[in-house]
Amino acid sequence: MSELQAALLAIGFGVIVAVYAFGWWQQRKYRRKFGAAFKASHADALYQESAAKPAAAPVEHVVTELEPETAVSQPVEEVAPEADAHVAPVESVEAVIEPVAETPSVPLSYAKALDESCALLDASSDFIIELSLAEPSPAAVLDGLWQRKFDFGKPVQVCGLTLNAQHWERAIAESQTLYERFRIAVQLVDRGGAISAAKLGDFRDLVAGIAKHIKADAAVPDVHETHHHAVELDTFCAEVDQMVGINLVPPGERQLNGSRIAQAASMLGMSLEADGAFHALDAQGHSLFCLINHDSKPFQHHTQETFTTSGVTLLLDVPRVAHPAELFDRMLETAREFARELQVNVVDDRRVVLSDGGLNLICDQITAVEAKMAEHGIAPGSAQARRLFA
């Protein structure tokens, strides 16, 4: 074998390994995102009520099921929301960070996103330490923070008050902008539960150490009070964290072909996104509801022709969408369209068809969640809700 042939063989082998590794990584990412809805530990991930969690500990955001009526009055669809995870009623707190204007040095839409992320920081959802600098400095002065930004298990954000424009913007390590003050925040809660007291203490010590090193004054909230609030917030979020699913299953042992699923999804205005699911998107690119595969394998463009599955599920992530009750009706219509196109049945995990009474019960549950979230100052589908239910 010549050197050229050996080199070509090695390159070909390398390409095959890379393709395999990418496919494995994408499937792992897909399972982590959507697998919670189908965990074996749940009696029925789309239909039954899960066991109540103890209120004392921070709770992971998992899906809780509802038990709708099962009278088979008409061939309609299954569904069942699931609820889970975060904290007790929390008093609304005024935003600690004022809304900021767009930064002229970067593209308008990007600057707006940066500014809005700072405006969302709030003592009710974040542990915020404010540093007042001895002299205006760039974000690089926080050198010790950037290396440890991902050590706390929750998103960390740095916002700076600009010297010239006098507005708050999201600061990055490479920025040359001079800042008078920094607000360094770690998020208290997401679907992984509440941040631990130990992590809060580590975060406080890190930022306090940086403040001492650069001779900045630091305003630091109490760690124990903040952790107590985080647990309460997590408990409340657990109560309203629901996901509604509608199963689409072919009769008998027939399998659904990936290309037919993709064709039907495209016709109904859904697009395949990087997470391996088909999504109906709003004008801002946020997902309204999605279509996932039953066996938790992601849909992929290059495998559509050979891909088969025993069924698919439409999912509505209630806290993350605006007007979820209205969207449930829209998702139900989409399910019926899929059923006609793919010649499938709309059922629950036990292949039971829901009655109108069952569907109305689910809609009432969604409406109750929407009202409870609004009562606590977290509008479903808002930027703040998308942070807390990520």
From TrEMBL:
Any one of the GO CC terms: plasma membrane
Entry function: Essential cell division protein that stabilizes the FtsZ protofilaments by cross-linking them and that serves as a cytoplasmic membrane anchor for the Z ring. Also required for the recruitment to the septal ring of downstream cell division proteins.
Subcellular location: Cell inner membrane
Organism, as annotated: Ferrigenium kumadai
Keyword set, alphabetical order: Cell cycle, Cell division, Cell inner membrane, Cell membrane, Membrane, Transmembrane, Transmembrane helix
Sequence ranges assigned to domain ZipA C-terminal FtsZ-binding in this UniProt record: 240-366
Biological processes, Gene Ontology terms: division septum assembly
Family: Belongs to the ZipA family.
Keyword Ligase: no
Annotated TM spans: 6-25
Major localisation: membrane
Entry protein name: Cell division protein ZipA
Membrane topology: Single-pass type I membrane protein
Keyword Cell division listed: yes
